[in-house]
Amino acid sequence: MSAVCSSHGPVVQTLPPPQQDKSICSSCGGHTAGHLLCSLLLWLSGITYGIMILTGVEHMHKYCLVVALGYLSFCQITRVYVFDYGMYSADFTGPMMVITQKITSVAFEIHDGMARKEEQLNQSQKLLAIRRMPSLLEYFSYNCNFMGILAGPTCSYNDYIAFIEGTPYRHRDLEPKGKVNGKSRLNDPSPNTEVIRKLATCFMCLLVFLSVCKVFPVDRNVDDDFIATTPFYAQVVYLYLSMLTIRPKYYFVWTLADAINNAAGFGFNGYDCDGLPQWDLISNIRIMNIELATSFKVYLENWNIQTAHWLKRVCYERCPYNPTAATFLLSAMWHGAYPGYYLTFLTGALITLAARAVRHNVRPHFLGSSSHKFVYDIITWAATQIAICYTVVPFVLLSVGPSLKFYRSWYCCIHVTCVLLAIALPVKSRHLRLKEQKSAAQPSLESTDSNSNQKQKAT
Question: Which residue stretches belong to region Disordered (predicted)?
């Protein structure tokens, strides 16, 4: 950590600490640590940096995506079908997933900043756009910094460089005279309180996972005796409980990774409306928002947040046709080669379309009174939690056989329901919605221009 928090200037702080990286990777990968370091430092980072330099800013983002995702897929296929099928062991593919996000994010952000016009960018792309080519040292430091080498979370290149250089965290919240949300800002506040809170959360999540997970094994959902002798309503309750007890291990890992970055001083995101510091710039989860989510969209927005941002920025915002399906497909490829991943994300895409149709057509009828909205929220909470559990069973079981067995035991009822809802309830395509928003914004711009012209004439 001293390499990052050193006061000897950005160059020293940017230097990647190889011995720390090596020890961290060795503790995770064992005999694969050498391959991990070679992949991170020599292959992916070096090759993709060469691609960016040689191919130019117009098309380098496409080449970097193909190379990084292709090599990640090769490693995952090798791991699954050559070494240890079905064994969820920690190895080099975990860090490879993180560095794939970083490599592709940088490539797209450079493309936005150096190859596209300002008016072609949305607000997020303008904020994250990289206006100059990073040096080799900066590029390697961003990809291989030891704070997030194992579990991330992924951050934007601009945020990382701002942290290294000690510049303001985000320009969007800065007010004149060095104030943020009306509060004087000289230095980032101490992260100690937030780190302690997140470490306490880690401890509780680990305790819950170790004590409860074995009580509700997921495999029981596809056990023949359980399916034959258990009423369907009890199967639904057990499915929810079995998936609920799995989530704490993800809460533990992502909260710990967030706390590590915060302890180094990275992750400050300004002050809230009450003047309290926020350390959620690179947070990956919001636990209460997940457990109380009343829609599929809200759940996904609060789960693996940085990966969701990456998928949105790299795929969803740029795909001209059917971005929802393309985004879920990219997510499945990024996660790995197990067939269960593809079943999960194909199901997720279908449920997303159905949930969007329900939200657009049904929800407005329940907003007339608070009591109606409360009933709607209760129903949608239960539906969301069951839909999520139903969706991620193949993600946990990994194989095709057990996954299809589970869906058959439920008569694929959620699949059928989602297809019927998507067909019966009309929803405008994203392309048409964006077109309407632009056309609606045009008159306001014209009226603003005319008002300004009238004022100029009056003066």
Answer: 437-459
